[in-house]
Design brief:
Elements (H helix, E strand, L loop, with lengths): L2 E7 L3 H12 L4 E4 L11 E4 L2 E4 L12 H9 L7 E2 L6 E6 L5 E6 L7 H11 L3 H16 L2 H6 L5 H6 L5 H15 L8 H14 L4 E2 L5 H12 L3 E3 L4 E7 L2 E7 L2 E10 L3 H10 L5 H9 L5 E9 L8 E6 L6 H8 L9 E4 L1 H4 L10 E9 L7 H16 L7 E7 L1 H7 L36 E3 L11 H21 L3
Parallel strand pairs: 1-2, 1-12, 2-9, 6-14, 12-18
Antiparallel strand pairs: 3-4, 5-8, 6-7, 10-11, 11-12, 13-16, 13-17, 14-15, 15-16
Helix pairs in contact: 1-9, 1-16
The structure holds flavin-adenine dinucleotide (FAD).
Flavin-adenine dinucleotide binds next to α1, α15 and α16.
Length: 490
């Protein structure tokens, strides 16, 4: 049986970044991943010779991100170049109240130019007063200091927005953006999280891609662990966490046991506590707390390989005033009452990096629509059917150019990330919902009550949107583990 300083369960962006940072800090690390690739929910795989994104594909913020810090610190920036396309890399499709479709081409790093303002007038019928209200909102956002922002951990974003009396179309645009970023009801989305990320988007841009595939940075982190004398095993599922005398001391995999001073799990806080470590190792109060945590929603959709360039931009959100989701609208969708346009987000990785496809004329695209995190929910098929109808209306010739089409939803996401250990959970697109009561001081502590066991990734230790939150957690939890192990003399 081999001994390590730290075992990391899962090579999603939280686990992979943390493992590399611990190796960088001088620890001997074992990184264990149950799937074939590092990257978790944003892993890149191969299909028919294409580099193929399984799920999400863009990073926010585009510039000055935790990802930039990570690759610089590890010295792998040249290995995994980042790209933020210039020009109009986003094209918004908005269905107006009158029923006509309007298109807004936009750069990923906005400048506030006259042209951008004119576009808001044309697409969202924005008057001078509407634009003034939006300017007041951004001014208020940038006027908040850290303490004022922290206080907004307890305020829902829709309530915070209400003070600006934004027009319906501009509200729809802002809420659409927030839902694609956080995948939670916008009424309970913590205003602190929303504002931080909107500020980052405004200053540092709304979309970064990694050349060779979004998962490339996680792959580089796993390689880094090995270069530093550690172990990386893919296709290795951790079955349980070994606990001796009230302390996590290692893990059991399909191929035997590995021991370490610290065990850090990227497998989700609920699966880690309730299944891998076991309820018997925690107080009844902690178990009750863990059971009460709410997941983010999930995403269903389909991945395409197309034999023609159908989509004209890298990021294409599609929505109407009815598309954004709060608790009430989501509950209506669950009961079968869908909006005229379900909120759809299309990522087109080949628009960021043409080298993903062996044929320069072909296009890879991922169409996403928002559903429950419950792997057993029946929303998936209906969401996909409705999204397809909208896409068919907008791009009628798409269906004649499909080389491959793969539908997916909460069940597959759960299979590639966290186990479903509680009713309604498992397929979450992000992790714990970043809603009031679950962020900032109310977010779970990455140090669990079981000595030697930590949580990393979107469930603890970070802030921000999606993978950025996961890597933020990687940095913050690495600092905790290094501090604890230095203190214990390991
Ligand atoms: C369809 C979709 C689109 C998205 N779009 C974007 C986007 O455009 N931009 C963005 O930033 N974010 C996006 N996200 C969100 C983003 O993917 C997640 O927030 C982030 O990847 C979560 O990282 P994580 O480290 O917390 O966990 P995960 O990515 O879930 O990683 C957990 C890892 O642990 C492994 N694991 C679990 N259990 C075990 C076990 N027992 N043994 C061994 N290994 C185990 C899993 O296989 C996985 O690799 C999207 C998500 C989805 C589903």
């Amino acid at each position: 049986m081999d001994n390590y300083d730290a075992i990391v369960i899962g090579a999603g962006y939280g686990g992979a970044s943390l493992a590399a940072l611990l190796a960088h800090g001088g620890l001997r690390v074992a990184l264990l991943e149950k799937t074939r690739m590092a990257g978790g929910k944003t892993q890149t795989t191969e299909r028919l010779g294409y580099r193929f994104e399984m799920f999400g594909a863009v990073g926010i913020p585009a510039l000055n991100s935790r990802f930039h810090e990570l690759v610089e610190l590890l010295g792998v920036a040249d290995e995994v170049p980042f790209i933020v396309p210039e020009g109009n890399a986003a094209s918004i499709r908005y269905k107006s109240q009158g029923g006509d479709w309007r298109t807004l081409y936009s750069p990923l790093v906005q400048t506030g130019s006259e042209e951008e303002i004119e576009n808001l007038r044309r697409v969202f019928d924005a008057s001078d007063d509407d634009l003034g209200a939006m300017a007041a909102m951004y001014e208020a956002m940038f006027g908040l200091d850290e303490d004022a922002l922290d206080a907004l951990d307890e305020v829902g974003m829709l309530d915070w927005l209400a003070q600006f009396y934004l027009s319906e179309p501009l509200t729809a645009q802002i809420c659409m953006n927030l839902i694609t970023l956080f995948v939670v009801p916008v009424n309970r989305l913590a205003a602190s999280e929303a504002i931080r990320v909107m500020r980052e988007q405004a200053v540092s841009g709304a979309g970064r891609y990694h050349i060779g595939g979004f998962g490339r940075v996680a792959e580089a982190c796993a390689d880094y662990v090995v270069e530093k004398g550690g172990l990386y095993l893919n296709k290795t599922r951790v079955q349980r966490i070994l606990v001796e005398e009230g302390r996590a001391v290692g893990v059991e995999t399909d191929n035997g046991q590995i021991r370490a001073t610290a065990v850090i799990s990227n497998a989700g806080i609920q699966p880690t506590v309730l299944k891998l470590a076991g309820e018997e190792n925690f107080s009844a109060q902690y178990i009750e707390y863990i059971r009460s945590l709410e997941p983010s929603w999930s995403i269903a959709g389909f991945r395409y390989i197309l034999d023609k360039r159908i989509f004209d931009a890298g990021l294409i959100p599609i929505f109407s005033n009815q598309s954004w989701l709060d608790d009430e609208r989501f509950a209506r969708m669950q009961s079968g009452d869908w909006p005229d346009v379900p909120l759809i987000a299309i990522d087109v990785p080949t628009e960021f990096d043409a080298s993903l496809s062996p044929n320069p004329d072909h296009q890879l695209a991922n169409c996403q629509v928002f559903i429950s995190a419950d792997p057993k929910s029946n929303m998936e098929a209906e969401a996909i059917r409705r999204a397809e109808a909208v896409i068919d209306e907008l791009w009628p010739d798409l269906k004649d150019h499909i080389i491959r089409k793969e539908p997916y939803g909460a069940r597959q996401i759960s299979g590639m990330s966290r186990d479903s250990v509680l009713p309604g959970c498992g397929g979450e697109a992000v992790g714990l919902a970043q809603v009031v009561g679950q962020v900032g001081k109310s977010k779970p502590n990455p140090r669990t009550p079981l000595a030697g066991l930590y949580i990393v990734g979107c469930d603890a230790g970070g802030r921000g949107a999606g993978t950025h939150q996961a890597v933020d957690s990687g940095f913050n939890v690495a600092a905790l583990v290094l501090e604890d192990l230095a203190g214990s003399g390991s």
